[in-house]
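Hello Y.,

Per our agreement to keep a running log of every chain we model this quarter, I'm adding this entry. I've kept the format consistent with earlier entries: sequence first, then predicted structure.
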Amino acid sequence: MEESVKDTPSCSTDVSASGTYLKFITRNADNAGTKMSLQDGGSVYWSPSDEISIFYGSSAYGKFTSSNTEATPTTEFAGFLKGYQNNGEDSFWAVHPYSEKNECDGKSVTVTLPSEQNAVAGTFDDDCFISIAKSDDFNLAFYNLCGGVKFQVPEEGIKSIIFSGLNNEVLAGTATVKLDDDGKPYVESVAESTAATSIKLNAPDGGTFQTGVYYCMVSLPAELSSGYRMRFEKEKGNSVLKGGKSVSIRRNTWGVLSESITSRAKDNYIAITCSADSATVRIFSDANHAQYEYLTLSEGENVIPGPDYGFDFWWTGSSTGSNGKIIKRDLSEGCINQDYVTSVDLSHWDASLVTDASHMFNFCCSLTAIPDLPDMPLVTDARYMFFNCNSLTSTPDVSKMTKVTNASGMFAYCSSLTTPPDVSNMTEVTDASSMFFWCSGLTTPPDVSNMTEVTDARFMFSRCSGLTTPPDVSNMTEVTDARFMFSECSGLTTPPDVSNMAKVTDAYFMFEDCSNMIATPDMSKLAALKDVKSMFRKCTSLATAQIGSLDFSSGLDYDSIFEDTPSLRTVISKCANEAHLSALKSHLEETHSYKKVVTQGETSAEGVTVFTIDTID
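Predicted structure for the entry above:
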């Protein structure tokens, strides 16, 4: 040091039980400033009432407070230094921010950078940006120990951000700090028990981050030679992964992450590589592989970044040697559910333990083909598995998924399918609602003849307008809900056989807008029906209706059952109840009043009554 400590400090005023009262003048030593309020251009100023720890040798210590009333690059600190006795040999050490955990042995200081920080728009957490000073007099020149990154969030709704390096570099913890020959601080070591390889930044005031605003994350200096990742945790527990190539976090430097990292990638494809030691999943966002999102897994590790880039991978190399496998424990809530993913490689997946495959490929609108799925013999939940994969012309083989019970929406909105999926072995399905909804490209129905346990068939084939042959549902004897089951199947001319659905209670809109169907199905066994509202509405080609034993006088909701059926000429009823026959005739007259006359025939000995609807010339 250039000067020795004076025998009597010029700024001291008294000595008490609290220690010796001293004043120190601080100044900027780094170009980026000394401390805490981050200014435009990246400089750091002292904030009003800042506090620092000051030590003398290894025994004297105290808390000192700044006197400035506004942010400034230079200020005065005053306080009591307990145990201070000038020996002419030791130096003053100072640490910002003040903490009871700060320590000094006379040759180094021990400080702690927390691994969880609180975000402040435009600046950083007051308790995080550590700076160090050493002096033989009362003028303290502070140098920043840490560096950091500035960034903007890619979207709304993000509550926290987790930053880490791919090689598990230490970014925070309790560090022993020394000064180099130029008086600049450096980290000599980090206590192993405190070493943190990731930093979590929470949104201000427990809310969410704002887009278009810069935030700062403070880190110990580190070389992230293999790249880094940022996990943006969203409000509902979901997250988005972003990553980039190598980056250096240098002392006293704020690196601004490029917008290409913190904005959503659009032209991605997925690459999966495995070895005996690890597995890596990357979603590249440019042709040069400069930016990517990633997961690197080691044995038994589970990473759940959520549905936006929704991977939930477990990896194991122990049983598969040098090739490695990615074990998918859970495929639910989206596996690769992005509309810009055009290809996937599933060759390294071991899904033998999967029970939930719901949403696995939902919204993969750009996928034209999916390679063979890994064996998934335990899957019971296949809801929305291929939902809105509207570019697929065929699906991968699902014939081994024999345990599926919930197939709701499984192929919904797969409007380009021309080859029906093989679901003939899905004998345990109970929920088939919307299973093939809007599969308008299918002309041949899938084989569902073995689905004998289905109870919910709502919208099952709704809007399958390309079907010309009705699906075989004759064995679906357990169905109770058939609402909209075949609505808008405009390609059907003959109805499906629903005669064995004796437990159906709700059938409203069941065949609505089946505009080319010329006759109703046999309804003679459908005695449990309670709601047939609009059941055949807009069946404009319908000529003959057999309504079995439906009783229009029993509280049955039959509103608009034959509305907009201009071709209807014959209605056959097997209910001889006079109140029913009167209500049925009234309904037919109401819905066919224009230039038509309804004639009620004689009721036969078997209780059959035929109504005819004739056109008036």
